[in-house]
Design brief:
about 550 residues, 29 helices
Length: about 550
């Protein structure tokens, strides 16, 4: 049926979900067969509703209301339903026809009822189904043109009261609440479709505001309320398109909404209304946005809206003014302005802002390093190599790390003055190491290693200390010329590993043993190494994985 096979299920779900689905076949119940689809309940940690579409445009597909399925994945519950379909394939045509017969029977029965009997049936169903009652009440209010009644029903649909425990809707009830809230969206769309777009627009705005008030009281881990918010935004946009609201009023609402608490819920972009606003409305939109920003120049929402509008209008000066009104102390905002000016073809002003960012950063240790990189590149591109070196030197002086040392070296080499700059930089690092101890000493060792000055790095490590990784690097670099020194390091690093277990520790130990063997070979003392390995194998004999790894690398001892 629909060509569904285990291989297709495995491809759709992936190996893990497919294997898990095998264990849920017995949890499938209430299989309902339709034209090209099959629905069923699958009992997992909760009861989930799953649906397979057998004849989709790209082959079989499915949906499930479990958390994993709601993310668009083909989950284990769908696998279980698919396996059930395969197992019952021979019986599915009969069941499909039976379902059609039942539907035709219901239609025939309803058609034969008198008006009074049909009304009695509907009243009976309404009495037992609150959701059905609400849907019909809403449709009735809409048909009567009862705006107050529709508003009341929408607020009732968005009320969390029936779902909340102690004022909060838990995860288990959030989906049911979202499904009810979704009926409010349908009601608003129905108003637009029936020619009452202005009412729909007003109610959409009220619904957005009401939903924003309760969203923090709902566990929306699955994002259902976010979808409702997006749907309300779409319904509002559609209503505006049909109603043709006053551009000035629409602009004011869009700015107020964008700066309010409900903006994150709907993600409405005022510029999506550009064609509805027209020239007059866009002027009003920018005016209202500017007024709001002028009143709160450091507000994130106000700045974001102004930047968005300025970029859309290619108004570089306004964009710079917004940035300049709230400059970050680390030069980051100066960098943003610099980039905007460069993109606008105003390099001189861009350079001025970049240099200003460096000057106005009180402590270059905290400066946005991207600003330093940017300005250095500009100096280099324009032949100002001495200025590039000065900037890198100042940054290194304020923030002495291996990276700033490397950056200073690159700039100084380009300016052919690295020998002098290196001596000054190392003097700083030596003074730091003497004054501050371990951390500064390790920066010095890293710098010397990066310069491939191994002898100086050995001396610095002995005087100021180094971490194990640096000692290992020193030993590896020095093994050909200083095998005895390297051997002492390898032995010290190997000792704690002999007290550890686990394959990672074994791999590290064997790597050190190979280096130790090379040192003994260079020193002409292979017998000492053989004795060492023999003793090690004796003390470590219970670690079978280690012994096997040593055998694989020819570390068998004497």
């Amino acid at each position: 049926m629909g060509g569904i096979t285990e291989a297709k299920l495995r491809a759709l779900a992936g190996e893990i979900s497919f294997e898990r689905g095998l264990g849920y076949v017995d949890a499938v119940s209430g299989v309902d067969v339709g034209d090209g689809w099959i629905r069923a309940s699958v009992r997992g940690s909760e009861r989930y509703e799953s649906e397979l579409v057998l004849d989709g445009p790209k082959g079989p597909a499915g949906t499930c209301d479990c958390p994993y399925g709601q993310e668009g994945n083909f989950c284990k519950h769908l696998v279980a339903l698919g396996l059930t379909v395969i197992a019952q394939e021979a019986d599915l045509p009969r069941r499909r026809e039976s379902a059609r017969d039942r539907a035709r029977g219901v239609d025939a029965w309803l058609s034969g009822l008198s008006r009074e009997d049909l009304l009695a049936l509907v009243r009976e169903e309404i009495a037992g189904d609150r959701q059905l009652r609400r849907r019909l009440e809403l449709r009735a209010a809409s048909a009567r043109g009862d705006l107050a009644g529709i508003r009341s029903h929408i607020r009732e649909l968005l009320d969390i009261g029936p779902f909340a425990r102690y004022g909060y809707v838990e995860y288990a009830d959030a989906r049911a609440y979202a499904e009810q809230a979704g009926q409010a969206v349908s009601a608003i769309r129905s108003l637009t479709a029936s020619g009452r777009a202005a009412d729909a627009m007003a109610l959409a705005r009220e619904a957005i505001g009401f939903l924003a008030e309760v969203v923090e009281s709902v566990d929306d881990s699955d994002g259902c309320l976010g979808e409702i918010g997006t749907d309300l935004a779409d319904a509002h946009h559609d209503a505006c398109r049909e109603a043709g609201p006053d551009p000035e009023e629409l602009a004011h609402w869009l700015v107020t909404h964008e700066l309010g608490d409900s903006a994150d819920l709907t993600d409405i972009d005022p510029l999506d209304y550009e064609d509805l606003l027209g020239e007059q409305g866009l002027i009003a939109l920018r005016r209202y946005a500017t007024e709001a920003w002028t009143a709160n120049r450091t507000g994130w929402a106000e700045k974001h809206l102004m930047q968005r509008l300025a970029k859309s209008g290619r108004d570089v000066d306004t964009l710079i003014a917004v940035h300049a009104a709230d400059l970050a102390p680390n030069g980051h905002t100066h960098l943003l302005i610099t980039r905007e000016l460069e993109a606008a073809g105003r390099p001189a002003e861009a350079l001025e802002w970049a240099e200003r960012g460096i000057r106005e950063t009180e402590d270059l240790a905290t400066v946005d390093t991207a600003l330093v990189d940017h300005l250095t590149d500009r100096y280099t591109q324009t032949g100002r190599l001495a200025d590039a070196v000065t900037l890198r030197r100042d940054h290194f002086t304020a923030r002495r790390t291996l990276l700033t040392y490397q950056q200073l070296r690159a700039a100084a080499r380009a300016a052919a003055c690295w020998t002098v700059e290196r001596e000054k930089a190392l003097d700083f690092l030596h003074a730091d190491a003497k004054r501050e101890g371990d951390h500064a000493g390790r920066v010095l060792v890293d710098a010397l290693l990066d310069d491939k000055d191994t002898d100086a790095a050995w001396q610095a490590a002995r005087e100021h200390g180094a971490h194990d990784g640096q000692w290992l690097t020193l030993a590896d670099h020095s093994r050909p010329t200083r095998p005895a020194d390297a051997l002492a390091v390898y032995h010290r690093l190997a000792t704690p590993l002999t007290r550890q277990t686990g394959n990672h520790a074994y791999e590290q130990l064997v790597s050190l043993l190979l280096s130790i063997r090379d040192c003994h070979r260079r020193l002409g003392t292979p017998d000492d190494f053989a004795a060492y390995v023999t003793d090690l194998r004796t003390t470590q004999k219970r670690k079978r994985n280690l012994i096997r790894l040593m055998d694989d690398h020819g570390l068998s001892g004497s």
